[in-house]
């Protein structure tokens, strides 16, 4: 996975790059908005970590220009600013997520991984397991050819399981994916409610509980 960091604080950028490289990412760094826009246009990146108060071209404008050019690369914005208005401005220009300083490096890595997983799910438009078909683009679910209506949250929970067929997915991983860090209390028991609803709608033999570990989507 290749990441681009666009951040004017050189010490912060270097620290983030060092940590992300230790996580196994390939990382490029630039320090102003114009260079960031140019670098993003020159090479395919899996994700961009984008500062806001950049010289040359601020992060909002960089993000807006990338989206206007049809570039759907995931963008995680960093800022010294605070408040709902600033967050809304970043998201309105097309950013996928937002992190306000000071922040934990662990949280940064978690956000990056969540965005990368989400993009991977969108890239794999149709996921099939036995007679179950999950269409991530159309957000439709069919079993044995019959469409099954799901709520948005039910679909997200099922999508996360479908991205890892035959693998155990923990409640924490489902929360991380389906609630996108907006679920403040983080109570993993809410996952059980949605899994139960999915079992009722999908029927037996698909979602299996792995005691103490999570859930597995598997046709038996």
Short characterization:
By secondary structure, the chain is α/β, with parallel strands linked by helices.
Give the helix/strand layout.
Layout (H helix, E strand, L loop, with lengths): L1 E5 L3 H13 L3 E5 L2 H10 L4 E5 L7 H10 L6 E5 L4 H9 L4 E4 L4 H19 L2 E4 L2 E4 L4 E4 L2 E2 L4 H11 L5 E2 L1 H8 L10 H14 L4 E4 L3 E4 L3
Parallel strand pairs: 1-2, 1-3, 3-4, 4-5
Antiparallel strand pairs: 6-7, 7-8, 8-9, 10-12, 11-12
Helix pairs in contact: 2-3, 6-7, 6-8
Question: What do these coordinates show?
Answer:
This protein has 220 residues and is α/β, with parallel strands linked by helices. The protein folds into two domains: 2-121, Rossmann fold (3-Layer(aba) Sandwich); 126-217, Orthogonal Bundle (Arc Repressor Mutant, subunit A), CATH 1.10.10. Helix content is 43%, strand content 22%. The chain contains eight helices and twelve strands. It has helices at residues 10-22, 33-42, 59-68, 84-92, 105-123, 152-162, 171-178, 189-202, and strands at residues 2-6, 26-30, 47-51, 75-79, 97-100, 126-129, 132-135, 140-143, 146-147, 168-169, 207-210, 214-217. A hairpin with a 3-residue loop joins strand 11 and strand 12 (214-217).
What would the keywords be for this entry?
220 residues, alpha/beta, Rossmann fold, Arc Repressor Mutant, subunit A, 2 domains, 5-stranded parallel β-sheet, 4-stranded antiparallel β-sheet, 12 strands, transcription cis-regulatory region binding
Overall pLDDT: 85
Main structural class:
alpha/beta
Spatial strand sequence of the major β-sheet: 2-1-3-4-5
* Morphology call: elongated
Portion in helices: 40-55%
Give the uncertain stretches in residue-range form: none
Order of helices and strands: EHEHEHEHEHEEEEHEHHEE
For the record, the CATH class of the largest domain is Alpha Beta
Distance between the termini: 34 Å
- According to CATH, the fold-level topology of the largest domain is Rossmann fold
The amount of beta strand, in percent, is 15-25%
What is the radius of gyration computed over CA atoms, rounded to a whole number of angstroms? 19 Å
- Extended strand count: 12
Structural domain count: 2
CATH architecture group name of the largest domain: 3-Layer(aba) Sandwich
């Amino acid at each position: 996975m290749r990441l681009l960091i666009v951040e004017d604080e050189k010490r912060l950028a270097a620290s983030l790059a060092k940590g992300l490289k230790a996580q196994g990412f390939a990382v490029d760094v630039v320090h102003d908005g114009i260079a960031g826009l140019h670098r993003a246009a020159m090479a395919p990146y899996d994700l961009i970590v984008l500062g806001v108060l950049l010289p040359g071209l601020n992060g909002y404008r960089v993000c807006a220009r990338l989206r206007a050019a049809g570039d759907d690369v995931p963008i995680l914005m960093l800022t010294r600013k605070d408040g709902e208005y600033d967050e809304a401005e970043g998201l309105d220009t097309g950013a996928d997520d937002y992190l306000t300083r000071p922040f934990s490096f662990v949280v940064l890595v978690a956000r990056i991984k969540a965005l990368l997983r989400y993009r991977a799910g969108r890239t794999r438009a149709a996921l099939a397991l036995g007679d179950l078909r999950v269409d991530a683009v159309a957000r439709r679910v069919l079993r044995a050819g019959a469409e099954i209506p799901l709520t948005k949250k039910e679909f997200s929970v099922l999508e996360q399981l479908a991205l890892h067929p035959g693998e155990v997915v923990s409640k924490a991983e489902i929360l991380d994916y389906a609630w996108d860090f907006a679920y403040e209390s983080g109570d993993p028991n809410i996952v059980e409610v949605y899994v139960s609803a999915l079992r009722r709608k999908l029927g037996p033999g698909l979602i299996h509980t792995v005691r103490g570990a999570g859930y597995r989507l598997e046709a038996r």
